[in-house]
Amino acid sequence: MRHLDLQVVDQALAWLREGRRVWLCTVLATFGSSPREPGSLLVARGDGRHVGSLSGGCVEEDFLARLRDGEFDAGPQTLRYGDPEGPSGPRIRLPCGGILDVLIEPLEPDAASLSHLEVIQATLLGQRPLVRLVDLASGRVQFAEDGGLGPRVEQEPGAGRVKLRVGPAARLILAGISPVADACAEFAQTLGFEVIVCDPREEARAGFCVEGVEIHSVLPSTFIASGACHAATAVVALTHDPRIDDLAMIEAVRTPAFYIGVMGSRKTSAARAERLRRSGGLDEEEMARIHMPIGLALGSKTPAEIALAVMADIVRVQRGRSREAL
Question: Which residues form the XdhC Rossmann domain (predicted)?
């Protein structure tokens, strides 16, 4: 599944190269229920053609009507949807009952706009995340290096600018196939992750039937060592087979993956930790990167419940939340 942000940026670049002006819209914040999260993108032309989304449809309809009326021609603007008492913006009540703040940036078909979007495109296709700093008064944009974790949008009170995180699509590498791995793959796809499964065992691959997953018939450690992990990658080993799980952990800690975890009880995890120190040569800093036992302590028993606990913990780390904050 192609990263939706990349679809938006690719289309924006195509229209700019045709000499068309475009409007890049970003969800800045949501309050209450909302179908799209902060950081979601939409790009539109003056005639109403668009790619991406900001909501379930009602916001887009109003925005495009106002765009055709020439309301967003003068520099960057912010709008609030869903707040009938708000001092500005359209007084539209969202069916979900939420409130939505949107940043609207008009982009001219010039070298500066092309360069700006080409940086975003390269970041989405690459392995190193960036943060896009947008001055809300002038529309001036700067890029800075970023760790890739934390909220997709951060507004700086009093500074008059927003920080928008840009990075490659989140990736989940499943080191080996098991019933829990099947359920994890399904959950991860629903959450927007690119899912890759590695398992050299033919009989295990034959029983795996999750559509849309990339499958490699090699040891996970071999695939991980090939450079498959970027900063938006999670690596999880869920087979209970140390020949697969341990080697995957040894290679994963050498990568920038934001989450590394392996399944097992506390007793099994203690034995694995000893093996990884003794045979794998991992130091304490490397050991600290490995979540074992993996996942949140939900009292999970079934494969689906364990997969839920694993994916919930991955999302927690991805969003920069501590366990204590839950």
Answer: 172-314
- Looking at the fold, whether 134 and 203 belong to one and the same domain comes out as no
Its domain, for residue 144, covers 4-166
Residues 112, 66: one domain? yes
* Ordered mean pLDDT values, 10 residues apiece, the chain (326 residues): 79 97 93 76 95 82 90 87 62 65 94 95 86 90 86 83 88 95 93 92 91 93 94 93 94 96 94 94 96 94 96 93 85
What DSSP string describes 206-274?
HT---TT-EEE-S-HHHHIIIII--TTEEEEE-S--HHHHHHHHHHHTTS--SEEEE---HHHHHHHHH
Cis (ω within 30 of 0) for the bond into 293? yes
193 lies in the same domain as 81: no
Distance CA 251, CA 249 (A): 5
**Calpha distance 178→180 (Å, rounded):** 5
